[in-house]
Design a protein that fits this description.
With about 450 residues, the protein is of the alpha/beta class. The chain is built from 16 helices and 21 strands. A hairpin with a 2-residue loop joins strand 14 and strand 15. The radius of gyration is 22 Å and the shape is globular. The model has no long low-confidence stretch (mean pLDDT about 90).
């Protein structure tokens, strides 16, 4: 990798610029005065924001400007035989992957805080963004989702860089953070790692080079700062109370009470995200008064238990949950707010994940009384019947199957006042749900 790429070249082209991470990197280059272009299949909120900032974005088959840019950045979501990637190779362009480019950008900051883990990365990174903003420290943030205040990126100085560290294709191992956070550990992306043990080893590798590593109490044998809900952890929560699905708790550091935090987001799991964020902020030397103020101003992330409207009087909530553990956590949260019946529309994300975690998906989905399994969002993959939504549906008793929005509308026709509807998945189910409600 060439560490001088961000400074020494004037123009950058992003293949797959509409992705949440890719668009954040493109925004960063625009913010430092570089010329930016890119391509994607369709328009999105991110491409519209980039165009408003001055980026030139091409869609569908209308592409042909790659020769006008110095550096080509590509997302791992595209195939290696992608037409534009091949064109860049033939033109002998400088080509870097998204993960490599994120690392190159991170090297321009004095301190890097990277948040990894199977679940909660976006929420924790967003919490840290609010904390640092409240502190007044010069910092930038690269968020793998859409914070309701800061969207997917924030640029306010070069002292600290907050970023998500994605384990997909081992991308997080490019990063060399000063503070490495591992929120949790669970089997995922096994098509890449081969086994849960290999994934676990990668997390340990990610933490090994950091000045300070932060992980959940009892989860890894490595040292560093531990967070949890028992007093064996360095940072722990006590006197936990719940009010309508939102939690408050006292936070302690090595037995000393730092103060009370009242979360403004739903879900017991967000206590863990908050503990990790507080641990990282304290490791960076921030005052607890700023930490408390920032974290309590955090109002959520798009598609993280986000209320998106109502259908026939039933409250509709969208959540990114696409792993069995995430689905289970979201169902528990929904149980605190659902008045009458709970309806769930779940869209599996990738055939490989469904196939690798098939029994776990079946187990958690069997607990849902009113369930529709929607056709798989394939993302980067080719069809695989053994990991398809239809095969999953055939193994979940009492579930229904849908492959078009009208199937969802019919399934929800019985929902009414006092009921709750969950739209779950990391694919286009969010856009489908929003269109249904509009």
């Amino acid at each position: 990798m060439q560490n001088d790429i961000p400074e020494n070249f004037g123009s950058f082209y992003f293949i797959g610029i509409g992705g949440v991470s890719m668009s954040a990197l493109a925004k960063f280059m625009l913010s430092v005065g570089k010329r930016v272009g890119g391509s994607d299949r369709v328009q999105s909120v991110y491409t519209r924001e980039l165009e408003a900032m001055g980026a030139a974005v091409e869609f569908g088959e209308k592409r042909g400007s790659i020769d006008k840019y110095d550096v080509i950045v590509y997302t791992d979501a595209i195939l290696q035989n992608d037409v534009q990637l091949k064109e860049a190779e033939s033109l002998k362009k400088i080509i870097v992957s998204r993960g490599e480019f994120l690392y190159l950008i991170s090297r321009k900051f004095k301190k890097v805080i990277a948040v990894s883990g199977c679940h909660g990365k976006t929420t924790c990174a967003s919490m840290l963004t609010h904390i640092f903003f409240a502190s007044g420290k010069p910092f930038a943030a690269h968020i793998g989702g859409r914070d309701l205040t800061f969207k997917n990126a924030y640029f306010g100085g070069n002292d600290y860089f907050i970023t998500e560290a994605c384990e997909f294709k081992k991308n997080f191992l490019y990063l060399k953070p000063d503070i490495a956070v591992v929120l949790n550990y669970g089997a995922d992306h096994l098509e890449c790692y081969g086994s849960a043990e290999n994934l676990r080893a990668a997390y340990i590798d990610f933490m090994s080079g950091a000045e300070e590593c932060i992980s959940r109490s009892g989860e890894f044998a490595v040292g560093g700062i531990k967070f949890g809900t028992d007093d064996k952890a360095d940072f722990y929560a006590r006197n936990i109370t719940c009010n309508g699905g939102k939690y408050s708790f006292e936070i302690c550091r090595n037995g000393k009470i730092l103060g009370e935090i009242k979360l403004n987001v739903f879900g017991l799991h967000n206590i863990w995200n908050a503990l990790a964020a507080v641990s990282a902020a304290c490791a960076a030397g921030l005052e607890f008064s700023d930490i408390k103020r920032g974290i309590e101003r955090f109002s959520g992330v798009e598609r993280r238990f986000e209320e998106i409207g109502d259908f026939n009087g039933a409250k509709c909530i969208a959540d990114y949950a696409h792993h069995p553990d995430e689905i289970e956590a979201t169902l528990k949260t929904a149980g605190n707010i659902a008045g009458k019946k709970l309806y769930v529309v779940f869209q599996p994300h990738t055939y490989s994940r469904t196939k690798n975690l098939f029994s776990q998906f079946v187990s958690v989905l069997l607990t849902i009384e009113n369930l529709l399994i929607y056709k798989t969002f394939a993302a980067r993959e080719y069809f695989d019947d053994s990991g398809s939504a239809l095969t999953l549906y055939q193994n979940v008793e009492n579930a229904r199957y849908g492959d078009c929005p009208e199937d969802i509308r019919e399934f929800l026709s019985c929902a009414g006042e006092g009921d709750a509807i969950l739209f779950l998945g990391a694919g286009d189910i969010y856009e489908i749900a929003k269109a249904l409600l509009s």
